[in-house]
Amino acid sequence: MSTEVFFNTKEELWIFGCACLLGVFFGAVYDVVRVVRAVVKHNRIMVFVEDFLYMLFASLCFFVFSMELVRGQLRLFVLVGNVAGFMAFRFTAGNVVVFFVRKIVFFIKKWFFEPIFKRVFSPVLIGFREKLTKTRAVFVQKSKRFQKSEKSRKKHLKVDNN
Questions:
Q1: Percentage of the chain exceeding pLDDT 90
Q2: Is the per-residue pLDDT at 84 higher than 90?
Q3: Does residue 4 lie within any of the structural domains?
Q4: How many angstroms separate the CA atoms of 125 and 47, rounded?
Q5: Predicted TM-score of the model (pTM)
Q6: What DSSP string runs through the chain?
Q7: Do residues 6 and 71 lie in contact, with contact meaning Cβ atoms separated by under 8 Å?
Q8: What contacts 28, CB < 8 A, 6 or more positions away?
Q9: Which domain covers residue 129, as residue numbers?
C-alpha cells in the first residue's frame, strides 16, 4: 500500500471484507466464552472478568488490525464491517454452534460425569461429612470448656483482712 492518506475503492472494499472477517473472528471467540459460561456456573464477578478480558482482547486485535491495514486511521466502514461480521456470525452460525455444543456438553455431563460422581465421589463425601461432624462436636466441647475456664479465671480470690 502506498503512503497516501486516501484509499481507492478497491482498497476500501478489501479492508471492509477483512473487517467483516475480523468481526466473524470476534463472534467465534465470544461463542467460546458463551459455551464456557454454559458449562461452568458463573457468578456476576466472573462474568464481568470474562467480558472485560474479551473486551481487552478484541480491542487489541482491532488496534493491530487498524494499524496494519488502515494505516492507523479510524474509518467508519471498518467499525461497521466489524459489527456486521460479528452480528452476522452471532445470529446465524454462532447460535447454531452454541446450541449444539451446549446439548453435547449437557449430555456428557448427565450420562458420564454424574454417574461417575455418584459412584466414586459420593461415598467419599459421605465419609468426609461424618468425620467433619465428629470433629465439629469435639471443637464445640473444647470451646465450652474454654469458655467455662475463662469465666472461672475471672473470679477473684477473697482478700484476707488479717
A1: 32
A2: yes
A3: no
A4: 30
A5: 0.64
A6: --S-SS--HHHHHHHHHHHHHHHHHHHHHHHHHHHHHHHS---HHHHHHHHHHHHHHHHHHHHHHHHHHSTT---HHHHHHHHHHHHHHIIIIIHHHHHHHHHHHHHHIIIIIHHHIIIIIHHHHHHHHHHHHHHHHHHHHHHHHHHHHHHHHHSPPPPP--
A7: no
A8: 89, 94
A9: 9-151
- Residue 45 located in a structural domain: yes
Q: Number of folded domains in the chain?
A: 1
Query: Hunting for cell 461463542 — which residue is that?
Result: 31
- For residue 58, is it within any domain? yes
The reply to whether 162 falls in a domain is no
- Which residue's C-alpha cell is 461417575? 116
**Interior/surface letters 119-135, b for 16+ CB within 10 angstroms, e for the rest:** eeeeeeeeeeeeeeeee
Spatial neighbors of 73 by CB under 8 A, at least 6 apart, are: 5, 66
